[in-house]
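Let's do one together. I've listed all components of the complex below, 784 residues spread over two lines.
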Amino acid sequence: MARIIRNTSTREMLAQLARESEGLSQRDRRDFLRRGITALSAAAATAAVPATLADTLNSANLPPNEPGWSRQLGHGVVENPYGMPSEFESEVVRRTVPWLTAESISSISMTPLAELKGIITPSGLVFERYHAGIPVINPEEHRLILHGLVERPLIFTLDDLMRFPSVSEIKFLECPANGGMEWKGAQMEALQFTHGMLSCCEWTGVPLRVLLDEAGVKPEGKWILAEGADGAHMSRSIPIEKALDDTLVVYAQNGERLRPEQGYPLRLINPGWEGNTSIKWLRRLEVGDQPWYHREETSKYTDLLANGKARKFSFVQETNSVITHPCPEKPIGQSGFIEIEGLAWSGRGTIKQVDISFDGGVSWVPARLKGLVLPKALTRFSLVTRWDGQPWLLQSRAIDETGYVQPTLKQLREIRGTNSIYHKNSIHTWKVASSGEVTNVQIT
Amino acid sequence: MCRLPDRHWRLVCVGLLLATSDPSAAEPLGIGRAATAEEIAGWDIDVRPDGLGLPPGQGSVMDGEMLYESRCASCHGSFGEGIDRWPVLAGGYDTLTLERPTKTVGSYWPYASTLWDYIYRAMPFTAPRSLSADETYAIAAYVLYLNEIVDEEFVLTQANLAEIEMPNRDGFFLDDRPDSPNIRCMDDCADPRQLQMVGTIGGITPVGHFRAGADAPAASHEAQKALEEQKEQARLKELGIEVDDTPHAEVALSAAAAAGQQVYEAACVACHGTGLAGAPKVGDYQAWAPRMQQGMAVLIRHAVEGFSGEQGVMPPKGGRVDLSDEQVAEAVAFMTEKSQ
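Okay, and this is what the predicted structure of the assembly comes out as:
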């Protein structure tokens, strides 16, 4: 749709509508414009039919004609010293749901998963979560202090950290509140908002255990407090077992230095764990013998069950999956061949299998994993089939290397109630109507 | 392998070992330098339930009341009830099993240390790390008082904080997942006649970018504000009320205002960019006009010394006491010139 409205001739039609509406009263004008836009969108909905398509496109740019862009020169090198996506992709952006938070400084935005075609999330589309906005940090003045129960308290500059042998790992990052608006019922009308607190990047930095070795952890050191340099001074307690296993202190993302939104110049990555533990703008690591029970591990990021008790230190992001095509943003355009595509991920390791149901979970067929299948990384799955206007209740169900099978919503609610906010990883349902429209529904 | 008789060969072996050894398991690489006690003390702000990390100091409920009103109440409400979507701090007892629980310091938080730690590290929202230890003790005492955990004569100190028993201290248990086992069933996994389907409520999700004609919220806070203002203007116009919607031309900034832009972006934008705590937003001509009528001298004095009005609270220098008076004056010049 958006692509069609961007088209010049459609813009002209909209402008004409606006011109014709001038002189009408406010209400009449709105009605007039609404009717006009509805007519336009009706034209767009049937855009797959060549005759209508021709109405909205400039036929001078279509074969057999030489398009305008083939008969002139374009911009030269370094016109954009840092390249940007095509202007026709301006709708591929992060978005938020404003009523979720009081304002934008302590808020969250979501990744446009429907538009992404690989396991790597482009750095500018990685979901955002701030508690005090993005600090502007001069990397020359940034320091990481490592202290507490260590033999040698140390202070590092960025240059120091980059002297350590580096590692690069592709890992997903997910806010544990991903899908949290859906516990009580289906609420969000788009994939971006049901699952978009999810991204996956290649992260480059130093394993935390290397830094801990450098400082020499004392035998009584069992927990690590990680703290950010933002105004929130975000802090989380992390067990030493995780720190010695696969926690990373990273300065680069997708081959370039971290984006400010992602913790420039330094952040923690706890692969497979709730995103909140991957402290951004990392400035301090303290080794202690107990957890600290700070605000983000008591008041927040604890999972309240129906009996009034809450689960704490629920770090792992359990196995999850979602179909990204079709989805509300990508309805089915025409009958015939269709590839069902989606993403699966597990905080416990590698995705082993994804199954797809067309009937709301009554029967299932195996999908195929494609591309790179890596532990604690987004994994693509695919199923090629036909659609001839039949209504579908589309679901995906992922299984990881531990044998864990993604649960149904009913199973999750029976155990946890509906007030957990966090860690909702249940099987998701898209309803495909005979028109090809896709909507978010819940089946219990 | 390296027990060779010849000294020459032994050297080669040592060389091989160095080249192939795993640096992460070896001796320290000598990267970085020793952190001084002074450097650590400046940043080591964390506090634990057992009181470890608390600095010396104290604060009474009485002292806390004044501080809370001026620093906290504009978002959290005078009784901790929460304004708009800002966190509710008090009450909510016996609601954790209800359909809509109210999770507050009193009803949910397991330890008093968390309250002290969070206030000291992150509050007030617009001026983190601006509170002294004594102020933090006082505000924490007052929030405990709002939750009926201490009485109005109470004085919170380094010595007694760890002894406070929070009502929900036993309300948490360690992660015991996986807790919701499913099996990989392929056929007849559910009775299709028993399936119940629930759809979404329309109109609460930003879908305007892919669904035309939808009366949906915008996909950013800024755009949503603009959308609401637009709707309000349309409504007023329909009622026949005159609305000033003439575009305000960009004016060239004075030297002082240009200098103030950086201060604004670093220190003032949190509130004056969003309207937080009743702050007049930059570019909101109607909000600034009556304020500017008082004259720049008054505006600058209020910004430097602080001001409490009906609309909201301006802490001295917005909580950024590190700024010079001149820097604040320049930021005021920037904000006013952008809003006329």
